[in-house]
Amino acid sequence: MDLKLKDRIALVTGSTAGIGLAIARTLAGEGAHVVITGRSQAKLDEAAALVRAVPGAGAVRAVLADAASEEGAAILAREVPHVDMLVNNLGIYESKAFADITDEDWRRMFDVNVVSGARLARTYFQPMIERNWGRIIFISSESGLLPPPDMLHYAVTKSAQLTIARGLAQLAKGTGVTVNSVLPGPTRSEGIVDFLRSIASDPTASPEVLEAEFFRMHRPLSLIQRMIEPDEIAAMVAYLASPLSAATNGAALRAEGGIVPTIA
Fold first, then answer.
1. Is 93 an active-site residue?
2. Counting Cβ atoms within 10 Å, is residue 205 exposed (0-12), middle (13-18) or buried (19+)?
3. What are the DSSP E strand ranges found in the chain?
C-alpha cells in the first residue's frame, strides 16, 4: 500500500533502537525523509546506516541531541525547523515497588516520558496548524489504561501522554493536523531480556522461559501471549503518519496484544 509519505519529513525521537528504529525504517521505506535522534554518535551512525539501507528510503539525517532535555530540544528545533510528522517515541520504563519510587524517580520518568514530548509538540504544533497539515503521534502504552502495580510511575506518565494528545487534537479541530496516540504492549527490544530477568523467579532462565513466565505471571490477559515485534507497532504508526489516516484524530489506538480487556 502506498501511504503517500514520499518526501514528507518525519522526526522520530528515541530512534536508535527498538520501536523508534522500527518506525524510522518503516517511514523511510515509504519514501519519507527521516530524522533520527539519540545521545550516542556511535549508535546514531549505526541506526542511520540501517535506515538508509531500507529499499526506497528517502533522505536520512541523524541529529545528536538528548530529546529529553531543554538543550536537546533546542538543538532539534534549530537543526530541524520543519517537520510534517513528529513521532514522540522517546521513553523509559522500570519495575519498582511503589514504596521504593523516589521523588527523583518520579521526576525523571516525567521528564523523559511526558515533558520531552510536550516540549517538541509545542515547537512543531503551531507551524503545522499554519500549514494546515501535520501529524503528531505519541507512543504511549497499554499501561496508561491498565496500570501495572509494579510500574505505577511509568503508567502515570503514559496516561499523561494520552491526555496531551487528546487535548492537542481538540486544539487542531477543523484543520488538517491530527494528533493521536499508539498504545503498544510489551515489545521486544534490546533491553527487554534484562527487564524480564529483573522480575523473574529465576533470573538465570533462558529468554524463552523468561518471556513465557512474564506473560503467565504479569500479563495473563494478553491474547497473543508473546512479545510484540517493533515492526508491528511501526506499521500502525506509519498509517497514522500518512494522509490516509485523516479521519483518525484524538484517538488512542491499541497495539497491545489484547491485554486491555475492553472492546472500546
1. no
2. middle
3. 9-12, 33-38, 60-64, 85-88, 134-139, 177-184, 252-255
Q: Are residues 75 and 178 in the same domain?
A: yes
Q: 106 lies in a domain?
A: yes
Pair 159, 194 in one domain:
no
User: Which of these is catalytic: 93, 124, 154, 239?
Assistant: 154
Whether residue 240 sits in one domain with residue 200: no
Bridge partners, 135 (sequence order): 85, 178
Q: Where are the beta strands (DSSP E) in 116-162?
A: 134-139
Dihedral sign, Cα of residue 78, residue 79, residue 82, residue 84? negative
- Residue 195, C-alpha cell as written in the block: 527487564
* Grid cell digits, residue 107: 521526576
Q: How does strand 33-38 pair with strand 134-139?
A: unpaired
108, 37: one domain: yes
**Total of domains in the chain:** 2
Instruction: Dump pLDDT digits (tens) for 155-206.
Output: 999 999 999 999 999 999 999 999 999 999 999 988 899 999 999 999 999 9
Domain of residue 199, residue span: 189-227
What's the CA gap between 161 and 180, in Å, rounded? 10
| Prediction pTM value | 0.95
CA angle, 111 as apex, 257 and 90 as ends, to 5°?
45
Alpha-carbon span 156 to 67, nearest angstrom? 20
- First-last CA distance in the chain: 27
Report in angstroms the alpha-carbon separations of 23 from 86, 90, 160, 261: 11, 12, 22, 27
